[in-house]
Here is the input.
Amino acid sequence: MFTPTGARVTSGPISYEVVSGEAMVRFSSGTTVAEKRARLAAAGMTFANEVSITDWTRVLLPTGTPVAQGLDALSFVPGVAESAPNHAYRPVRSPNDPLLNSQYALSQVSALAAWEYEIGSSNLVTVAVGDTGIDRTHPDLSAKLLLTTSQFCDPGASKIIGGDNSACVAQAATDACGHGTSVAGVAAASTDNGAGISGMSWGARLVSLKIFRDADCVGGCSAGACTTDDQAVADAIAAAQALHNTAAHGKIVLNLSVGGNTACPAVVQAAVTAAVAAGVVIVASAGNSPACSGANVNSPARCVGVIPAAATTSSDQVASYSCPGPELASFGVAAPGSSVLSTSNDGGTASVTGTSFSAPMVSGLAALVYSQKPNFTPAQIQNAIRAGAETIGASANSQGAGRINAYRTLRYAVNGTFAGFDGELKPIAFPNPFKPSEIGTVAFAIPPSLNGARLGIKIYTLDGTFVREVNGLSWNGKNTEGNAVASGTYVFVVTTSAGTGSGRLSVLR
Here is the structure.
C-alpha cells in the first residue's frame, strides 16, 4: 500500500517509514471507547479509529509532534499497555538478478531500500566511464550502452605525432584489459533482467570514454605500459560535458577510476571546472597504496570539484590499501571496494578489488540522485551523498563523510533534511517481512548510537532459542546447520563495542 504524499517520515540507516503525526495504541483490556477518547484528549491527542479485528487504536498526535516524542507521551496515558509507530509500506521492489544475493556491497549501502524510491528511471541519466573501455558484447551491459562504439581519446597522440587530440575518436566498444567493463557493471549493470548481477542504478545508461589504447595494456591492466595521460583525461571530461543535457544522454555522471601520484594537473583541473560548472558530476577513485600521493589522494580525485571515493571492506572498515587525504575529509565518501562482484571482460562475472570499484558505486548513487532530482547541481548531489553517509569509525581523511548509504541519501535528496526522522534508536532489518524465496538475504542496519568495533548479530526465536550468529550485516535465513528456518518472527540482537540493541524480523516462506 502507499501512504499519502507528504505523510511519510523517513527513519533509520536502512530504516523503516512511519506515518507522521500518528501512532498505534493498545489499551488494557476492558477500556471503553469513551474512556480511550477522554484519556487521549486529556493528553492533547485524538482518537482516530479502532483497527478491525484487533485490540489496537489509531491515534492522531498533536500537530507538529515527532512520532518518537508522541510515543514517549503515550507511555504516560492511563491504561495504555503498548504503543508503536504507524508504519508505512510500499510495494517491494527487488530485482530478479540471480547473483544479487552474492553482492554484499549493495546490502551494505542499503541499495535495496533506496530502490523503493528511485531506480534511476525517473529522468534519463548516463554514467560515462572514462577507462579502458567497455565490452559491448557483455550480456549485462550491452543493453545499457548508448553507443556500440567507444569514444577513444587516443592518449599520447599529441605527444608522439603532434596531432590534434581535442576530440575523441569513435572506436569499436572493446575493453583494453577488462578494467572498464568491471567498473561499468558496478555502476549500472542491467538489473531485474533475470541474469547476472544488479547495478547500483537500474535505469542509468552507459557510455564508454576509452582513454587507454589496447596496445598499451598488453599483459593486463596492471602492466607497466598500461597508462594514459593528462590530455586523454581532459578530453574524456570534455566529451562528457558535450554529452550532458542532450536528448540521447540526459544528465551525465562521469566515473574516472584512474589515478596518478600527483597534484591535480592544471589542464585536468581546467576541464573539471568547466564540466562541473556545466552540470557534470565527476567521481574518481582515491587511489590504492603504495601509489598514494603522500598524505593526499591520487589525481584526478584530488581536483577541486571531483568527488573522491575511498574503499571499504565487507566488514565495513576502510580498506588498508585505500589512499587517505584531506580531499576525502572535505569532499569525499567511502564505498565498498573489496571483493566486489561485477561484470568481467569474458562475458561473465568476477570479484574485483580496489578504489576503482568503490568509485562507480558512488557514481551509480549519484545517477540515482540525478534521476530523482534532475535540477540538482553537482554540488547538491555531492552534499546529498555526503549527508547520507554513515560513519564507520575511521578518520575523515580515510572515510570522508562516511561509507555511503543510498537510502539515506535518496531520502535526504527528496526531503532536504533529516530533521524529524524517527527510528534511529534501534537496529532495523530490511526487507521486513523477509521472503527468502524472493530475495536471498535480509540486510541489517545499526543506528549511529551503536557504531563501534566487534560487531556481532545473533538470531533467536521468540522463545529465546538460539538460531545463528551471522558475520556482517546480512542473513540468508538459515540456521547454524545450514537449514532454512521456518516461517515466524525472530529476534536479532546486535552487539558492538558501543552497546547492544535488538529488533524483530518476520520470515515468510
Observations:
- Residues 355-372 form the longest helix (18 residues).
- The two ends are 21 Å apart (CA to CA).
- Confidence is low (pLDDT under 50) at residues 1-15, 158-163.
- The longest strand covers residues 17-27.
